[in-house]
Amino acid sequence: MSEALVFHFDVDGDNFTSAGQASVQVKKDLRQLGLPTDIIRRISIAMYEGEINMVIHANGGTADVLVYEDAIEIILEDHGPGIADIDKAMQEGYSTASDTIRSLGFGAGMGLPNMKRYTDSMDIKTKLGVGTTITMRIELA
Amino acid sequence: MQINTYEHSVLLDASKCTGCTTCMKHCPTEAIRIREQKAVIDSTRCIDCGECIKVCPFQAKKAVSDKLSEMSRFKWKIALPAPTLYGQFDNLDDVDYVLDGLLKIGFDDVFEVSKAAELVSAYTRLYLKTEGIPTPVISSACPVVIRLIALRFPSLSENIMRLLPPMEVAARLARERAIKNHPELKEEEIGVCFISPCPAKVSYVKNDFASYKSQVDVVVSISDIYFQLVSVMSPDAKLKSMTESGMIGIGWASSGGEATAILTEDYLAVDGIDNMIHVLDQIEDGNIPPVKFIELNACTSGCVGGVLTIQNPFIAKARLQTLRKYLPVSMNFLTKEEGDYIPDSYFFDELPVYHPINRLGNSIAESMHMMADIQKLRESLPGIDCGACGSPTCRALAEDTVRKCAKIEDCVLYRRGKEGAEENEG
Hints:
Strand order of the largest sheet of chain A: 1-2-3-5-4
Largest sheet of chain A: 5 strands, antiparallel
Largest sheet of chain B: 4 strands, parallel
Strand content of chain B: 5-15%
CATH topology of chain A: Heat Shock Protein 90
Order of helices and strands of chain B: EHEEHEEHEHEHHEHEHHHEHEHHHH
Distance between the termini of chain A: 16 Å
Oligomer: heterodimer
Radius of gyration of chain A: 14 Å
Shape of chain A: globular
CATH class of chain A: Alpha Beta
Distance between the termini of chain B: 58 Å
Helix content of chain A: 25-40%
Strand content of chain A: 25-35%
Number of strands of chain A: 5
CATH architecture of chain A: 2-Layer Sandwich
Structural class of chain A: alpha+beta
Number of helices of chain A: 5
CATH superfamily of chain A: Histidine kinase-like ATPase, C-terminal domain
Number of strands of chain B: 11
Helix content of chain B: 25-40%
Strand order of the largest sheet of chain B: 6-5-8-9
């Protein structure tokens, strides 16, 4: 199959309790495809971090998981404020989250670093005031 | 553990089933379908949680357990009462009345599961100090948890605590005690009967659960034995003290009891099947605060919420709290040396094997084709998850159709839409 199989999710911006639903659902879907469990776990963790980021910083967005025969691609797209300094954002422990968000246990500054750690490649396209698109790839071979 | 030949403990009384879809919609693993107006359980997906028994409005779902009369084949009969049993009686102020009652109805000896639970608690505290174990350590006491992890959370199977559950420990110790006190007994003359709050324990014993053979012979339900017990328990009797359970052991019957017994605050205690699944998903995503130990109980409020009990779980829990109040914290009486290491007999080594029950095709490529078909079919369904077709959700009907065990035309609204379109054309 040359065409990718796509799982599409809308990530609700104002709901912390529902954040993580897409990563739970995608786990179920990928399990049905018979992907190796460690790959599923990596995707699920990367997705979860991305979802939380979109809820905290961007008032939600969309998540698409594309399954190819040799790789999985996760595309997270939002229309939030954009990332001012990607290098800083990639540093462990750096976060622009508000104190309120931190008091909820989020905003530890591990989101992007974790997403990078659990995937084989990650590309960030961002424009201030317009939004951010993050593409992550996990190879199946 | 051969999951395909797995013997379940939930059965359907077809004459009472109306095909109402209630159980199908509540089943946490989507194991139920309605076929020809009757509920059908897919045994490869069933985890024996008992939800369908709890929600059935017509009492058509039955939990299977053994009859007490099956103990008559043994010369020496030992009862293993689950601590939940003690919470079933009104105004019970001493566990000895229950234990005495068990002897009166024909048992030769009683070994409290709560006593074994205190040993398991002591060894759990040691276990948690083991270097390099994957955390959070997940409790192995509720058999539903073990089966759920095997079917759905394979990446967490390494986190399951390798200590035998209290019932199993109690069975072994009870046998040892019988042989010691009655050396004339042969192994096969000793029968061990667990008095159970839930059907999952019945399945556990029948299926040699995690690759080891259970030492329990017969599992009877609390509800079966209850009235027999009540009729022989006399409040005036002067009893010799038999009970060997403290607060910790009895605490195991309710949610949080096992976890608080690790004696630190480094734990979570979760009860209820849906909550449990939710938390397991969170653990898998690395999305919970770092804790050392997680107690999971499939039933609301813990074992007191099992379907084979008589009393409502909240009342049973309150009664156990009263009963515990005047007991010593623990009566495990381990000497310092005994408490220093975990004996081999407390471990099980083999973890449940991952059974990818939900896999669609035989290869990833085939599965991807099938998934694409499911997505397409799903689009043509109304998305109201009414269950009238006999599958729990529209998504499930799409999947059942692709798996060739249902037809898309089973959907009433789909059919009507199609007829409408044809009429318009004509």
